[in-house]
Design brief:
CATH superfamily: Class I glutamine amidotransferase (GATase) domain
Strand content: 25-35%
CATH topology: Rossmann fold
CATH architecture: 3-Layer(aba) Sandwich
Strand order of the largest sheet: 2-1-3-4-11-10-9-6-7
Number of helices: 5
Number of strands: 11
Radius of gyration: 15 Å
Helix content: 10-25%
Distance between the termini: 15 Å
Number of domains: 1
Bound molecules: glutamine
CATH class: Alpha Beta
Structural class: alpha/beta
């Protein structure tokens, strides 16, 4: 039986369809999860996709982090379930306390929308095990609040323990600290990144199919769990 991977929809989510398609391309079965429903429907992993949940009111991801479904995601992540947060999903995972630090307004206050080369700094997480360490992948970035910030202690801990998973290879276009594009939880099961791998699964519609590696990685992670 193929793994079942949940994709959450909040009011204002944009990229749930593309995330579900990426899951399908990888050979797994996407399962729709709804923000107001705490039931994770027995999925093997969860993706928190990008967009403008609750209109980005208060702060990006702040309201979504308190949705009923997120209580279940936090509990499941505590039990080792792989969770991937993409863009607004990354913001939600930080707001929910599953990942440290925060995403602040981009340097120069501009929304950045362009393809970016990312370097895979850690290929031992649940979402990056199919990549070579140091591989560079081309993935779209489209966000207004993508500048990763954290306390000096948190940054040192992330760097020292290899929890910086993706870095902007040519320097952060949004002022992100240390050119950080994505990070992982201590056990490597929860990963968040600002760029959008789900928009890079087919060269016909995206800049590459490099993003597929994240979704394929989850297959190994749930099988070996
Ligand atoms: N593409 C997205 O998920 C956008 C995330 C968020 N709303 C921002 O602009 O930063």
């Amino acid at each position: 039986m193929s793994p079942r991977i949940g994709v959450i929809t909040f009011p204002g989510t944009l990229d749930d369809d593309d995330a579900a398609r990426a899951v399908r391309y990888s050979g797994a079965e996407p399962v729709s999860l709804w923000h107001a429903d705490a039931d994770l429907k027995g999925v093997d992993a969860v993706i928190v996709p990008g967009g403008f949940s609750y209109g980005d009111y208060l702060r990006c991801g702040a309201i979504a982090s308190m949705a009923p479904v997120m209580g279940s995601v936090v509990e499941a992540a505590g039990g080792g379930m792989p969770v991937l947060g993409i863009c607004n999903g990354f913001q939600i995972l930080c707001e929910a306390g599953l990942l440290p630090g925060a995403l602040a307004r981009n340097e120069k206050m501009h929304f950045v929308c362009r393809d970016e080369w990312l370097r895979v700094e850690n290929n031992s997480t649940a979402w990056t095990n199919r990549f070579e360490a140091g591989a560079e992948i081309l993935v779209p970035l489209k966000s207004g609040e993508g500048r990763y910030i954290a306390t000096a202690d948190t940054l040192a801990e992330l760097e020292d323990s290899g929890r910086v998973v993706f870095r902007y290879a040519a320097g952060a276009p949004n002022g992100s600290t240390g050119d950080i594009a994505g990070i992982a939880s201590e056990n490597g099961r929860v990963v968040g990144l600002m760029p959008h791998p789900e928009h890079a699964i087919d060269p016909l519609t995206g800049p590459s199919n490099d993003g597929l590696g994240l979704f394929l990685s989850a297959l190994d992670a749930v099988v070996s769990a």
